[in-house]
Design a protein that fits this description.
Helices cover 7% and strands 52% of the residues. The protein is mainly beta. Strands 1, 2, 3, 6, 7, 8, 9 and 10 form an eight-stranded antiparallel beta sheet that branches. A two-stranded antiparallel ribbon has the order 4-5.
């Protein structure tokens, strides 16, 4: 009969995040973006032709969101060490992060491996006595490389 195609599409709400091989729960992950920056070069004497030469890879900031954790977990300790390192000469501790999109059996459908990540911003919801919302902490990270597998 030939090859059959699986037309089931993955859902974005079933994912896992591992920080140095330890699973950490998040409500949202964004910033899995890679871009090749280019330089426009015109051909000598031919002003109608433009060549786009690749120069370097750039990555969007990785943004992780979750409910505020009141106990000091590994992410909390890492953020505290990194963001408080300013007085100690900026001694950040880069880590590996793995984000996996999961299927119904909790097996990875696709995995993004982020290398050399470190937090540079840690923010929290505004306090508002007129809203009954969960306090969300947001950690923004810079990183060296992003690779997708599976």
């Amino acid at each position: 009969m030939g090859d059959t195609v699986d037309w089931s599409f993955p859902v974005v709400f079933h994912f896992s995040v591992k920080l140095d091989n330890s699973e950490v729960a998040f409500s949202e992950v964004s910033g899995l973006d890679t871009t090749i920056e280019t330089k426009d070069v015109r051909s000598g004497g031919d002003n109608s032709t433009v060549y786009h030469l690749p120069e370097k890879m750039t990555y969007t900031d990785l943004v992780l969101k979750r409910a505020l954790v009141t106990e000091g977990d590994s992410l909390y300790r890492w953020c505290m060490r990194s963001l408080n390192s300013m007085s100690a000469g900026y001694k950040v501790d880069p880590k590996s992060i793995e984000v996996s999109l999961l299927n119904a059996e909790s097996k990875p459908l696709a995995t993004w491996t982020i290398e050399g990540a470190y937090p540079f911003k840690w923010s929290f919801n505004a306090f508002d006595s007129m809203k009954a919302e969960i306090m969300i902490e947001t950690v923004s990270l810079k990183y060296r490389s992003l690779k997708r597998t599976l």
